[in-house]
Amino acid sequence: MDMNEKPKVEEKVQEEATVEEKPTLPDTKEGKLVKALLEKAPYAEGEVIRERRIKFIVPADRIHEFLELASEKFEMLMQISVVDWLKEGQFEVNYQLWSVSESVHAFVKTRVPRDEAKLPTVMDIWPVAETYEREAHEFFGIIFEGNPRLGPFILEPREYEKHPLRKDFNMLSYVKEIYGEDFDRYDESKTNYVI
Amino acid sequence: MANLEVPRELREEAKAHDMYLHPIDKDTYELFFGPQHMATENFSIILKMDGNRVEKAIVNPGFLHRGFEKLAEQRPYFTNIALLLRICVPESDVPENIYSMAVDEIVGWEVPERAIWIRTVVLEMARLSAWMFWIMGFGNEIGLYTAGQWAAAYRERFMRLYEELTGGRVYHIYTVPGGVRRDIPGDKWLRQLRDTVEYLKGKLKDFDEILFDNYIMFERTEGVGVMDKKFALKHAVTGPNLRAVGVPYDVRKDDPYYLYDQLDFEVPVLKEGDSLARVLVRRYEMEQDLYILEQLLDMGPPSGPYMVQDARLKALPRFKPPAGEAYAHVESTKGDFGAFVVSDGTHKPYRVHVRGPSQSHGVTVLEELLKGARLADVPVILKTLDNCPPDIDR
């Protein structure tokens, strides 16, 4: 391939970034789903990402209410993913739902402050949330009020309350602290370390 | 038993953690099942037994935790393939594919047709070799060792094909964002694959006689570990376990990826929801997978490049996708396997979260199904749910 030729994909992305048009819901099954949910829950924002993928942004204090509404169409809670946005001081909690009847995957996003991360549990809607919330609590330190089993789950007891998937948790210095002299490969003066 | 003395402090501490260090009364006792037990595959369950019956089960994961998600945040995009495929050993192509699909979507790459065809073939081969691996474990669980040994031998044929295609037997590092790492070796490889498919089709009848149509298998699985449709949906059970309760959800049909919308295959569904239904759904799926591979071979690989043509691929460690996020999922033998990748525009992913199907059916569902089961049924329930511990631990 010609090295001087500019990749096509980059141009496309830049174009999309400059054009700011108001999102309108398409007349598809995804658009109808978003519209029906937004009518019941006007506090949320919703959009269609692509075919069979939709997205909602919901304030943290109304997340339980919204998910209860969504559970009528979305039978399964596929997972709860947390993204740690360190610079903004927030955790983004993604509830990923799948509708078996409509074949649509929905992201339900909410943000909570990092220093006081609390959310209501959704175990009463989908019992499987118990497992996902235990994981999110252990790795990020988010407290799900109402979940009785928040405690050591996967990690060892000495790692508990350390929340290793937070962006400010330095894995290498933790390993050095635990293994000390045995871990002599780690040199703190090096930046951009790849083990 | 009465002379068993445990220090009072230790006993109180154990009691505070809901455990008892000595027989609770004449018949009730606590049993640690795994992780060293063969049937559990590095997985541990704490059982509270009443005689021969399980009173309560507490799942105790974490023996396989290797911190893949944290490590993935510290490596360039293409290096992560060699890491994430170790999540699920029996079908290591699945984590490769979901991660590559998600990165493809973030970058906006249109994967070439030839690569799509190769990826579909590789995924179906992974499914078949994972079925063989499962028969090996399940056959051993119920004492039908011959079936297990046959399955291990047939899996070897796929291992050889993989070795010729990718250079690796178990871990392939073959599917990468933008395509596949190298081209198929030639027509001889395709002929060998067709031979293997034909061979397995014949051998499926032998499996029926020795395992699936066997009196012992029916006695051990019928009515064991029953779940209903509502329970399965609320617990996000996917894959053959969900199809055994009557929900025809298959990612290949409901969220088609690769060539699956052009292929003709059926989604087997049974209604009973017990271990027997789960076993039989898997048996029917094996047949469908062989049928899919046959169709793909009839189609033949399309001509063209096997990797996307992009100048950025010349400097892989510094390869930077645009900021964005994507979720991709495929149908694995364990269920709906998904990856959520977030990019912040740097050369390393900002977050990778893998949805292992066993995370939903291996913790709460297992605890529920084990209640009231006999001790001998514990490995049967574990194996028919097809619990893969690294999905939970990661």
UniProtKB/TrEMBL annotation, chain B:
It comes from the Archaea. Gene3D superfamilies: Cytochrome-c3 Hydrogenase, chain B (1.10.645.10). Residues 142-394 form the NADH-quinone oxidoreductase subunit D domain. GO terms for molecular function: NAD binding; oxidoreductase activity, acting on NAD(P)H; quinone binding. Keywords: NAD, Translocase, Transport. The keyword Aminoacyl-tRNA synthetase does not apply. InterPro entries: NADH_Q_OxRdtase_suD (IPR001135), NADH_UbQ_OxRdtase_49kDa_CS (IPR014029), NDH1_su_D/H (IPR022885), NiFe-Hase_large (IPR029014). Belongs to the complex I 49 kDa subunit family. This is Membrane bound hydrogenase, NiFe-hydrogenase large subunit 2. It comes from Thermococcus kodakarensis (strain ATCC BAA-918 / JCM 12380 / KOD1) (Pyrococcus kodakaraensis (strain KOD1)).
